[in-house]
Every structure is written in structure tokens, then in C-alpha cells.
Automatic annotation (TrEMBL):
It comes from Coturnix japonica. The lineage of its organism: Eukaryota, Metazoa, Chordata, Craniata, Vertebrata. Pfam families: ParcG. Residues 1-34 are annotated as: Disordered. The gene is PACRG. This is Parkin coregulated. GO terms for cellular component: axonemal B tubule inner sheath; cell body; cytosol; glial cell projection; manchette; neuron projection; sperm midpiece; vesicle.
């Protein structure tokens, strides 16, 4: 009599023993990975775009804030007016510049270095040059009050404001005796921006670089300013400049 399995079908040879295809107990069957071609590691590397590091933004222009100079100008607190002549615009001072209170007016005009719209930007910058030309001994005591306005103007990182501020700094150092030495303790506030833009020179190739004629090349202006700082800053000027700007080479020692 043919034995039947529990399922009702005829029993296979060997009875209820392990089938020929059945693995013994304790054996782990290895399965092959089922990975499609489109999702292999190699295919993913081909289709992957590696994103670079974020931009540091060292040269990015910073937003401007309202200045005290604009507020005072709109209230009519400055003894100035706009005068037109054949040479262009100039400031008509309502009082003699030598009689101005430099501790009050000069820091306000330096605060206007951040202005970029007419007439505030014209009055601020031309007013600074006029006061530096006629200031004499009144300029040196005001130096500590000028550092924050100068630092604010440099920190904007605006190309136009940088050029104007560098020219003002050159005029400031040459305006009176001992001014260059008085600026040395404040190099840590002023020179970091110099170090960032020091190598920003215009490469015009075979063309003509008109920015050099207009003195609007930031790299050249920074180099000129540093050399003036060194020449008029006394014995400790170079070592302090070198500490803040390691790539600077002395114009006196070399």
C-alpha cells in the first residue's frame, strides 16, 4: 500500500525525511544582492554633483546704516552751503574754518564717509579735506574720535567708499605733525580690511587701466597708504603693520 503524506499526495521516496533540496539545520543560505544598474554605487558617483564650500563673503558689501552726518545736515546744523563755479562744486563755509570746533565737527564729517548719495557724500568728503587743510594743531587731539567713523567706512567694503577713505587717511597723516604716530595704536582696528583688499589690483592686460589715473585701484591705494603710515608712523610703525599684514614689505628697510 502506498503511503500518503499529510497533504494528501503520494509520499516521495524517503518518507518524511528531509527532501533532497532542503538544507540541513543550521545552514544559512546566502542570497545574492538585488541591485539595479541605476542605483549601484558606481552609477550614483557618476550622477552626483559635489557641492563646494560656502562662500566666505570677505569681499561682500555690507549694508549701510543711517549716519549722524545726514541727520545733522538735514536739520541744517552745519555752517555750509553748496557753491557752483567754473571749476565745479565746492563748499561755501559760513564761518572761518580755523574757528570751528574740531572736536565737534570733524568726527561728524568723518561719519559722513559712509554716505554715497549727493549732496551728503560731497559735503562730507570735501568738508573733511577742507578741515584737514586748515586744521593744523587742532587735528591731533581729535584722532581718537575719528577711529570709529573710519572703521565703519572701511567695514562697508564698498569699493567707492574704500577708495575715498584711503585717500582721506593719506591726507589725515600728512595734515599735521605726529598724526601718523598717533594712528599706530589703532592699526588693529584699521588694517584688517587693508589685509583683505591688499591684492585687489585690476588686471587690464594690454588695455589701459584708467583707474590708475583716477587713483581708484584699491590695491595700489592700500600700498600707498601703508607706505605713508610707515614713513610717518615712527619706529614702531613697520613692526605693527607687519603684524597685521604679513605680506607687507618695508618701503624704508628695502
Amino acid at each position: 500500500m502506498v503511503e500518503e503524506e499529510a497533504g494528501g499526495g503520494p509520499a516521495k521516496p524517503g518518507g518524511n525525511r528531509l527532501s533532497q533540496k532542503q538544507e540541513p539545520l543550521g545552514h544559512v543560505k546566502k542570497s545574492k544582492p538585488q541591485v539595479s544598474d541605476g542605483f549601484t554605487v558606481k552609477a550614483m558617483m557618476k550622477n552626483t554633483v559635489v557641492r563646494g564650500p560656502p562662500v566666505a563673503g570677505a569681499f561682500k558689501e555690507r549694508p549701510r546704516k543711517p549716519t549722524a552726518f545726514r541727520r545733522f545736515y538735514e536739520r541744517g546744523d552745519f555752517p555750509i552751503a553748496l557753491d557752483h563755479d567754473t571749476k565745479g562744486n565746492r563748499i561755501a563755509w559760513k564761518v572761518e574754518i580755523e574757528k570751528l570746533d574740531y572736536h565737534y565737527y570733524l568726527p561728524l564729517f568723518f561719519d559722513g564717509l559712509c554716505e554715497m548719495t549727493f549732496p551728503c557724500e560731497f559735503f562730507a568728503r570735501q568738508g573733511i579735506h577742507d578741515m584737514l587743510e586748515h586744521g593744523g594743531n587742532k587735528i591731533l587731539p581729535v584722532i581718537p574720535q575719528l577711529i570709529i567713523p573710519i572703521k565703519n567706512a572701511l567695514s562697508l567694503r564698498n569699493r567707492q567708499v574704500l577708495c575715498i577713505t584711503l585717500k582721506v587717511l593719506q591726507h589725515l597723516v600728512l595734515s599735521a605733525d605726529m598724526v601718523g604716530e598717533a594712528l599706530v595704536p589703532y592699526y588693529r582696528q584699521l588694517l584688517p580690511i587693508f589685509n583683505i583688499f591688499k591684492n585687489m589690483n585690476v588686471n587690464s592686460g594690454d588695455g589701459i587701466d584708467y583707474s590708475q589715473q583716477k587713483r581708484e585701484n584699491i590695491g595700489d591705494l592700500i600700498q600707498e597708504t601703508l607706505e605713508i603710515f610707515e614713513r610717518h608712523g615712527g619706529e614702531s610703525a613697520y613692526i605693527n603693520i607687519k603684524y597685521m599684514i604679513p605680506t607687507y614689505q618695508s618701503c624704508i628697510l628695502n
